[in-house]
Please model this.
Amino acid sequence: MRIAFHSPLKTPDSPVPSGDRRVARLLMHALARAGHEVDLATRLRSRDGNGDVTRQARLAELGTRLAARYLRLVSQGKRPRPDLWFTYHLYYKAPDLIGPLVAEALGIPYVVAEASVAHKRAGGPWDQGHRATLAALARADLVIGLNPHDRPLVQPCLSQGAAYLHLPPFLEIDGPPPPERPDRPAELLAVGMMRAGDKLASYRVLGAALQNVPGDWRLTVVGDGPARPEVEAALAAISGRVTWRSTLDSIELGAAYAGADLLVWPAVNEAYGMALLEAQAAGLPVVAGDTGGVSAIVRHDVTGLLVPVSEAVPFADAVAALVQDPTRRRALGAKAAAITRAEHGLPAAAERLDAALRPLVEARR
Model:
């Protein structure tokens, strides 16, 4: 099948690294692994972070023009005619302004992966984006949810006959299973971009918690961003135990996971957290806040420990328990690696996607 792919929040070829870019690329790789031809149909970023109604109106107009241009190129044979349109990640700040128009005009299935609905935005500064998201969901033949937390609000917005599929977050996992960690003082690892909002809030919870964790341990922090000074201030009380690594490429990050014993991340308002999945694939147990879809990735007392989100004292207690018990750390890490490789690998995701998409196209044909 030919699949037209669109990511309105951030394009897969964006030069700026992020979890959103990573997941978009992974979805494209999974679709290609399933034997499909994936075409990046448009690079329009429809994100409006400020609630600017004028900007939203201009984006909607641009989306209509780009959809017409795409259809014209298809009719002229200058772009391949897709069998299906696939949009990743839409919500009120970044609606899909092209896909529903193209799918309707061509009579092809329209599929959405990772959508969220916030009805409180109706009538407010993001009303246009909210209504566009509802319209896209009403047009969708299938919605694929990576975060189970979104399903209760998204599924009622679908038209009769549309389907909803839960797809566990996944990774490209290469190489043999990780070796068992040696006995040593605990090496803690935190991975997260440094920006205002939820990421900074997570670092502040982390700093408040770790200053109350006894024992012999050190922390490596991987990440960077405009809130770096605030993050350093949040960890100032434990600065003598912290190693700062800035942003790492995939090989360097893999080495950081391999050199650690425990991933610690409060995950304030985290959708699910790709770093949590990467760490477990590398054999690291995780201590994280129980929020969003985190519990769909981290199994409490099986692959790590989940604690009430934004609460420093339970977080400190969970970290201390694993710092003081290397045998338990290793057992949780071994389970984490085995489960992640079995249930969250690229082959399993490709099979699930293929099984869901092929019937949609065959029914239209």
